[in-house]
Each structure stands twice: as C-alpha cells, then as structure tokens.
Amino acid sequence: MRRMHLMYHGIHDGTSSPGHFDPVYSITRQRFARQLDWIANREHPNLFHITFDDGDVSNVTAALPMLVERGLHATFFITSGFIDRPGMLRRSNVRALADAGMHIGAHGMSHGFLEDMDVETLRRELHDSKAVLEDITGNAVDAMALPGGRGGARELDEALACGYRDLYGSRPGPDEDDPQPRWRNRIAITRELGDAKFAALANWSGPAAHWARLRHGALAVPKRMLGNARYQRLRAALT
C-alpha cells in the first residue's frame, strides 16, 4: 500500500477564529475532527500523512490538541519569514509542535515561488528557511513543501544540495512507485470537501480521484500560459 499525503492549511470555523481564515483552505474544527477520526480508525493510520502549510496559529491552538488526543502525528511546513507575525505561529509555538513529537518542515522564507527565483535567491531561500527552523527546534529539517507547489528539477537539485531529503508538491495522488524519497504528491483538503469525498480521495479511489487528477492537469495549462504572478492574480480575483 502506498502512502497518502494530505495537505491542510488552517482550522477555522469562521473569520473570527484565531489565525488567517481562507474561504477555500480553512477547515472547520468539526470537519477536521471527523477526518482525524476516520484516519485513526483505519487499519494502518500511518499510511495517511497529515501535513500543514504556511504556519497559521491554528496549527497549534486547534490542530495540535486534536492530533494529540487521537495519537496522530503530522508534519508542519512553516514559512520561516512569517514566524511571529500576527495570526501566525510564534517561535514558542514552533517549539511546542516539535516538543509534542510533530515533524517540522520548511516552506521557504518568503513563500515566494522557487521556480521564479534566480539561483542565488533560491539558494538563500532554501538555506535560510531551514536554518531558522533548526535554530528554533534544535532538530534537523529534512523536508520542504514547495510554496504553491511550484518547482522542478532545478529546485529538487538545489534542495538536495542544501540538505533536504524530500520535496512535497501539490500534485494529487499517492506516493509514486519510485522508492527514492524525493518527490511527494499531496492531496489538498479544502473547506467544501464532504466526508464521503474525503474518504474517496484519501483512499484514492472512484470518481473523486479521477476528477482530482484531471483538475490538476487542467490547471497546469493556464499556469504555464500566464506565468505564476498573473495566474495568482486571476485566481485571487475569482475566489
């Protein structure tokens, strides 16, 4: 059986919840609890890898206690330059996640798209984000989630040279059959995702998996045609 990597961002019941509410990626506490219960009740819960991107404060105020209650673990990919900003994790929060047995990964310093950077800027982004988190936690940081899921062969080579082992993107699906721990696929968990569809995606079965793959492929076309900056402006206008 291949491992599934699930990508979350924040746990928010609404705009008044602590942190930065996102109409697409913010999951309610109730829905997150049901999803965690579903994972915890699987025969092999470790095949479902829970990850969080960016470093929203709800990662520690909401997600952490719910994970600990069920004996589950997660990886928190933190944008180092966002630490201590309003609504984001503080340094003490990052340490609390690590002390609770959670894995800490990098998500860049600025959340800029790595593939848009010149090589020197890319190297600083990879190195500095890793160094900040290692200084806070005292632990090695060997995994990184690509901001926006954007990256290719150059970014992989530079990340490996910097000491990372795994790069996580946003291509939906389970781990590839390639045994080398390098590229990791992930399924984005969104606010509108109902329980049945969540289970289908986590199991990577049925029409839900088929449409997730098709949607990802279809969105790749405007990203290539418009470029990252113009695509993001269009996406923001339509959200």
UniProtKB/TrEMBL annotation:
Q: Does the keyword Signal apply?
A: yes
Show the coiled coil region(s).
Answer: none
* Keyword terms: Signal
Query: Which PROSITE patterns is this protein grouped with?
Result: NODB (PS51677)
Q: Where is the NodB homology domain?
A: 46-239
BP GO annotations? carbohydrate metabolic process
Give Gene Ontology CC terms. extracellular region
Q: Entry's Gene3D superfamilies?
A: Glycoside hydrolase/deacetylase
Where found in the cell? Answer: Secreted
Q: Which InterPro entries does the entry mention?
A: Glyco_hydro/deAcase_b/a-brl (IPR011330), NODB_dom (IPR002509), Polysacch_Deacetylase (IPR051398)
MF terms (GO), sorted A to Z: hydrolase activity, acting on carbon-nitrogen (but not peptide) bonds
Top-level taxon of the source organism: Bacteria
> What PANTHER family does its record include?
POLY-BETA-1,6-N-ACETYL-D-GLUCOSAMINE N-DEACETYLASE, PTHR34216
Q: What is this protein called?
A: Polysaccharide deacetylase
What is the scientific name of the source organism?
Solilutibacter silvestris
